[in-house]
Amino acid sequence: MARPRSFDRDHVLHAAERQFRASGYNGTSVDDISAATGLGRGSLYAAFDGKRGVLMQAMGGYFARLGEGPRKMLAGPDEGALERLHAYLLRAVHGVPLAPDVPPASDRTGAACFAAKMALEIGASDPEVQRLASDCFSVVRTAVAECVRAAQRNGDIDPDADPDDLAYLLLTVIRGSDVVGAYGHSPDRLTSIAESAFALLPRPRHH
Amino acid sequence: MARPRSFDRDHVLHAAERQFRASGYNGTSVDDISAATGLGRGSLYAAFDGKRGVLMQAMGGYFARLGEGPRKMLAGPDEGALERLHAYLLRAVHGVPLAPDVPPASDRTGAACFAAKMALEIGASDPEVQRLASDCFSVVRTAVAECVRAAQRNGDIDPDADPDDLAYLLLTVIRGSDVVGAYGHSPDRLTSIAESAFALLPRPRHH
DNA sequence: ACCCTTCTTGACAACCCAGTACAGAACCGC
DNA sequence: GCGGTTCTGTACTGGGTTGTCAAGAAGGGT
What we know:
The structure is a homodimer of 207-residue chains. With 207 residues, chain A is mostly helical. Chain A is built from nine helices and no strands. Chain A has helices at 9-23, 30-37, 41-48, 50-74, 81-92, 114-122, 127-153, 163-180, 187-199. The termini of chain A are far apart. In chain A, 44% of the residues are buried. Chains A, B: It comes from Streptomyces caeruleatus.
């Protein structure tokens, strides 16, 4: 028995995320968010409790969204695990998409992991941002490690290798491609990096 | 026949760099720089032409300093090339030091590559920052590639591997460790990542 | 049709920030 | 010692920022 809100919450958070990714946290003003989302200042403060609230909720949504990619791409039977890892790596080095349906390559500007970017900019003085970014890394790392174990069970990766170490290394490559690929490098170069990393994975010494 | 300046230019730029690394570009005000360097606003504008000028000159100094590390650590005869690469990797994943004599591990906050951090924050709207960061990557990448070639000549790395591809991959790992290691991971974890990356380098198949 | 609750909009005040201008201080050369 | 030139510190201004507030709009329930 009251006026319903006239905006879609997720849509607003997506627009804000795009803005934050493009301009950074301190580089975007509330007016920028207002313009990007179409919401007035009052609505922003009522619904999200200001700039910082928008960021936190946008990052929360990002986190929820981020886990789905690796989980869906990497989960499955042991047989195809290595190939799934290959496909995931090739995609992951090209950035994290804003939405599941829009490819990240379209605008290199906002391709880098949202959580990583925010953590680098303001994480030093914001433990909550820090923690959220850490969670984002964990979800990817865990999924990759699980896929590595599957590949090991299938005999595609050296069983003596530590799957957690490999997962950390691959996560590092993926996050590193965010910054290496951010400017001055073509998508082909990123693909090449992913292929190199994949090719170097330790194969079992057959017989 | 005039009053000499009472501050050491490099010292000021180092202090400013530390501040920028800690708070980001948009997160530090001119007053912050003034407090960190001990210089008044007037001197800052006269000597460095404002906030942006300080950043550019600090990045310039950083670039000049950055190249020395890999060049000195990686250059040398072919025999020890692989071991030099090993040592360099182990050091590089722990960040880029503010000064050559101070270890980067002391404050994880400012350990990440200065150029990369600035490029991620404001590179999208600042081509010059973008280019400077790109140069920083190139100098590391070139030195690594040269060292890989040396190791190949010495028979320590598979001669069929593309040294440029490997250098790109290692650069990506190094930059990735900036963001992965920024928060929530111990130095031991970074060391472990470096060791994993080194262990995976393609060795020549000896007969 | 009416009322009440919630949302929305625009304006407002306090604050911070970058850059400038001006006055004083320090140093070198003579 | 003295003049001139440069450096240093501070006060000022115009613009932009954040967070709040009050008035209007819009819809649901009765």
